[in-house]
Amino acid sequence: MTNYKPELRQDPVSGDWILFAPKRGEKPHAFFKANKSDKSDKSDRAYKSKKTCPFENILETHKPISVYKSGRKNGDWKIVIVENKYPAVVHKKSVCARDFRHGIYSLVDGVGHHNVVVTRDHNRNFANLSRLEANMVFLAFRDRYLTLLNDPCLAYILIFHNWGPTAGASVYHPHYQLIAVPVVPPDVQHSLTGSLNYFKKYGRCVHCEMIRTEKKERKRIVFENDGAVVFAPFVSREPFELRIFPKKHSSYFENSSDAELEDIVSALQFSLKRIESKLGGADYNFFIHTAPVKDREKYHHYHWHLEIVPKTNISAGFELGTGIEINVMDPDFAAKVLRKKIK
């Protein structure tokens, strides 16, 4: 399998795309049990070890795409962006993805970009960065996103973070990823279609309507500042799921000003600190949903946002067989828990 190139295959029934990336199967994995046995403690220590961390000497072991420094002295870097060693998609200069057929099946070459954004401190994740450092991370996201926009082969760019083994983080050292692909992903397409249908029916942004509803009811609001609002969605898929919206309507993350991103960062750090405190250090994912990079005038109805999904639940037969998630947590109660001050 390792000789196979990445490719996207489309299900002819659902229309959904699946990315086949054999190279990802070579990346390191660290698994440890939830109990506190000596074996799990040892595995946990190995997972968190700086000695074996591939990002500790990143300027020597990787060819950086971008380096962000504090400016106080040479080599005092804060953020480095590199290519992923185990990419889900591969970049070919001046070569776009090829559409082709295999019998009844539609396929697209897995051509794109897979970058890793690495922060310096081995033991401080996003929630525990200084505000200046956290802001710098989002500025690095925006810078790299704007650069990738120049690639005419791309359809969508996803920025995301996996924190903890159960959230898919094979490396403990805090890092974030950008994956740019030649198709619009199914989940994003469903969101875009729903947003467009609402706009056609009511002439308003559905996300703006959600924000107005949540601010009026207040029950599911977790945090709010001048430019951003955090709430537990009324239709949450998972316990303690949160969404962060900029209050100002905008379809595109990359169009956000420095000040707007600072409000988003403040909201995100607050949310993650509460999740880590109230949920006993639960693993989680967060990601940015923004409009696609092509045909930009089509997506005026969309409202970019972040989603935070703590790993508190495992999908079983019913969820997999029906696509209907069973959420055991009322979002009103989840928001109430997360609003409470950390003791």
TrEMBL record:
Chain segments annotated as transmembrane: none
GO BP terms in the entry: galactose metabolic process
Gene3D superfamilies per the UniProt record, alphabetical: HIT-like
GO molecular function per UniProt: UDP-glucose:hexose-1-phosphate uridylyltransferase activity; zinc ion binding
Limits of the DUF4921 domain: 150-332
Annotated active site: 175 (tele-ump-histidine intermediate)
Domain of life of the organism encoding this protein: Bacteria
Protein name as catalogued: DUF4921 domain-containing protein
